[in-house]
Amino acid sequence: MPDATTNAPAHRRYRFREYHVTSVVDSMALPAFEAVCVTGEDHGCGTTSGEVHTEDELTRWIAEHCAQTGHDFYQRTTRATLHAEPGAWQ
């Protein structure tokens, strides 16, 4: 219901309980790494490494792309499979 003096909505108070979750990296799943070349003034190069499964593979791809093109700025994405272990409501 709006406040009669200002015609603004009345303040409401909501309370939320927290649900605690612990996330654990799944040791049976391979991690995934990917890099995208973002070197460029108007727009990034956009060349991507594709998905690789070790940091060494990613570093090697970046080094090779840098050597071939002189490009030196990259965005890196790291992904891992997690298992959520629910905790208790608090």
TrEMBL record:
This is DUF7848 domain-containing protein. Residues 10-89 form the DUF7848 domain. It comes from the Bacteria. Pfam families: DUF7848 (PF25232).
